[in-house]
Amino acid sequence: MYRVLISFLLVSTGLYSQKVTISGTVKDASNGEDLIGATVRVKELNGVGASTNVYGFYSLSVAPGNYTLVYQSLGFGDVEKTVTLTENKTINIELAEATTKLKDFVVTDTSDNDANVREVQMSLVKLDPKSIETIPVLLGEADVVKTLQLSPGISSAGEGSSGFFVRGGGIDQNLILLDEAVVFNASHLLGFFSVFNSDAIKDVALYKGGIPAQYGGRGSSVMDITMRDGNNKKFGAKGGIGLISSRLTVEAPIVKDKGSFLIAGRRSYADLFLKFSADENLRNTALFFYDLNLKANYTINQKNRVYLSGYFGRDKFGNDAFGFDWGNATGTIRWNHLFSDKLFSNTTFIVSNYDYAFSIGEGEDQFGVKASIFDYNFKEDFSYYLNGKNTIKFGLNAIHHTFSPGELSAENPSFNNIILPKRYALEGAVYLQNEQKISEIITLQYGLRYSVFNYMGKGTAKTFDNDGNELTSTEYDSWESIKFYNGLEPRFAAKYMLNDVSSIKASYNRNFQYIHLLSNTTSSSPTDNWVPSSNNVKPQIIDQVALGYFRNFKSNTYEFSVEGYYKNLQNQIDYRNGAQLFLNENVEGDLVYGKGIAFGTEFLLRRNKGKLTGWIGYTFSRAFRTFDQVNNGERYNALQDRIHDVSVVAMYKLSDRWAFSGTFVYNTGQPTTFPAGQYKIQGVTIPYYTDRNSQRFPDYHRMDVGATWYGKKTKKWKSSWTFSIYNLYARENAFTITFRENEDNPNVNEAVQTSLFRMIPSVTYNFEF
Amino acid sequence: MKNLFIYISVLFVVSSCEKVIELDLDDAPPKVVIEAELLEGTNAFVTKVSKTGSYFEGQPETISNATVTLNDGTTDVALINNNDGTYSLPSYTASENVTYTLKVDLEGTTYTAESTMPTITNLDTLGFDFQEPSAFTDSGYFCFFVFQDDPQVTNYFRGTVEVDGEFTKGVDDLYYFDDQFTDGNVVIIPVFGEIYQYGQEIKANLHSLNKAGYDYYTTLDNIVGNSGGGNVAPANPKTNWDNGALGVFLTTGVRTKTAFVKQTL
What we know:
The complex is a heterodimer of chains A (769) and B (265). Chain A has 769 residues and is mainly β. Chain A folds into 3 domains: 18-111, Immunoglobulin-like, CATH 2.60.40.1120; 118-222, TonB-dependent receptor, plug domain (Ferric Hydroxamate Uptake Protein, Chain A, domain 1, Beta Complex); 223-768, Maltoporin, Chain A (Beta Barrel). Chain A is 4% helix and 57% strand. Chain A has 5 helices and 51 strands. Chain A has a 22-stranded antiparallel β-barrel. Chain A is globular, with a radius of gyration of 27 Å. Chain A starts with a helix and ends with a strand. In chain B, 8% of the residues lie in helices and 47% in strands. Chain B has 2 helices and 18 strands. Chain B has helices at 2-12, 211-221; strands at residues 17-21, 32-39, 41-51, 61-62, 67-71, 76-78, 80-81, 86-94, 99-106, 109-116, 125-131, 140-148, 156-163, 166-167, 176-178, 186-196, 201-209, 246-260. In chain B, the strands form 3 sheets. In chain B, strands 2, 3, 4, 7, 8, 13, 14, 15, 17 and 18 form a 10-stranded mixed β-sheet that branches. Chain B has a 4-stranded antiparallel β-sheet with strand order 6-5-9-10, with no helix packed on it. In chain B, strand 2 and strand 3 (41-51) form a beta hairpin. Chain B is globular and about 60 Å long. Classes of the chains: A mainly beta (769), B mainly beta (265). The interface between A and B is large, with 85 and 76 residues.
């Protein structure tokens, strides 16, 4: 046995010694930014290649020999490099933008961007902020979240909202990461803007399904946003001046080619218009948001690189009589370390905070309320490029959550100060995943994530009866476990190439979600509270299977895909009638638990090259929930149930100076509960409700158009004007539908629809130098 | 929060619009509605029985063939049928901390509700405080209920005001509160944040409710005024009636103060 083992080891090391590893980074030649998802192909070996990770790193093992390596990335000119490989080698490559050599729109970029067919990952939407800057959005601000909402399977939580639903999942089931830090609330100005400044963003990847094992903590999707590193070649600045907000980004090398920083800021000034108001109080009202993105990175040597990134954003609304402000803050420190050519590691330490506060009144009448959630987060992630066929990822994650559900402080002696006790939890996970190329045709990705959650003291754990009345109350000391949960989260994905241009993919993932958002509005509100799983609240468990067909046409000019999915949701949360979510110590007594399902089919046809680019998406989907205490225990339409959803995005580049764009969206109206009868109490009409969400809002549709005029480009200066019109044909889409007695005749009732935006024109001036 | 949302968006782009629309609604089968409020002290007691009607077409139907009985734990008292959907006792004395049961027999079904008269909190005085105009109000006086809250117990209140003999707010604009933030204090709480003018005669009523009554008003308030739309899922108010009847059987006590508006605080 011993000999067998020795000889096996010899053979296997012998096998490995026959391979050499090429590794390195791929960067943008103009500014030194890492290129994510750039590919390296070995021309002589069909099907042998690698792609770069989010840090621009790649690693590839081949037998010694003479090869031609082809480096490609969408939008960049190809680079070919001939190498003689006898031992491990580091090759760092810089790619130049294809457009810099562009003449009369002959695209020199020949990259066969067939990742959608060839990669094992399905249900992935990738966005490059550069490619969306001409897409018209509300108030003229390019916005990655609003643009993602135009993809099949992702729908907006409401008119103008930054909240979104993925495949029938709730707003809180989206894991939103900005440089690995969790962003708890992605909305500015109650959703009209997302918190992400697209000038500071390099890459956005949204996983609707087939979620890889390195991600966890939310049930339905992962939105992974990577901030730009900043130009490490030379000083640069870009910015924009719009009707509602302006932004400025400054970036420069710290040490040329070794380190750089970026600072991006935005400030809205909607309230400046209030200064023109005749009303003195409106003149004194503040209404704005600002945010700051900061990032710095430094390459210490070939094996070590450090990153520092931060986000700070705040909304403010108020005047002398009241104030309301809220926002996110995140900070990330990362250290990339290469243990060897094959073993890449990243160590991350993160803090994330979301809080809101409001105050009402002045002097002794003043009272204020505040609440927050604060996380410390540690992550250790490894990528082991074992050989050409296997890429192993493994790592661990530990989070300490502090929930501050609410504090009321009052100057007025009539009011008692109320401080709801802080709540604490530890969340952890380990994962292991292998992506294995079985053959040219079949690739598998299989992994397992094991997650744990410890809800702990210091605190009081209460139990409630079926009607939500308090039964028992138990005190716990600091760090004493109140309730422990754990779960195995299998992840699996497979790809089968039908031929060179088409494939079939399948995936399954199970996700545990241990923290939950309590909200009693349809779209997200700044005062929504995050709560941990506890002795009363069980973790949400969401399973999803998906199957897809992928086909590219005309040498990847067109991408077509159709995906079907089925999702099972356990331990979903709803509220009792009349639940008090605000400053309620016994809020868990007001919660009820149920289950849900969601399923759908998504079609996408996309054109990636040429003067006309864009996509057409259609989704048929349903989403249902079932709660014992709701709707007599019968299944009802979930808020996310949109049935038919169409989106069309078209961008047309007419010339060097003009680009046009247009979008159209249509979806079945969201389910809602309307009165099914009426009665009178003390002479007032009271609506009588029966089935939950059995009716719907009118169908939603809207068209937006935009045009961009590019100023004369000089070596040092680029500028453009973007004009856009939101809701071109002034469709009055329902934001709310309310019911009331007719003013003149109280015996007649009427339904009243409120629409928010009819035809909003806007103009933005953008510059870059 | 929804109003804040609309307020902001209106500030943003003066573009939002409201219009009356045509909607096809389901018509649910008629449901029994029983509305009764028993007041502490000696008062007339009235119970209204009706059935729901279609929301847009038709009116709620009054029900005159029911039998209504009130019980104070020992004796049954039958209410007089006025044949207009109301059933009444001209004079009935109800006391604090007594549990009352109201029974309605209709078409073979008995609907029962039970409610305990709460301890009534005294209204000590009314206070008035002059306010400069603000973003939300004109200049004028706020009116304050001033009373000693009973410590250690949860108290529930509703406030109503009559100005020069007219109720300012009805069920469609409810004002109710509990002592979650004020338990055991001398409470000085503004009445609605409504503005009154110097010299007006204000009659302010502090209604003491029990938990069921407070829950009823809280859940009623979620759906009156402007219902539907922003709330995730509107639902019928919580009731203490069994067998699926709507409405409520309230037992409340009212304490009233009348004053002319002038600066007092």
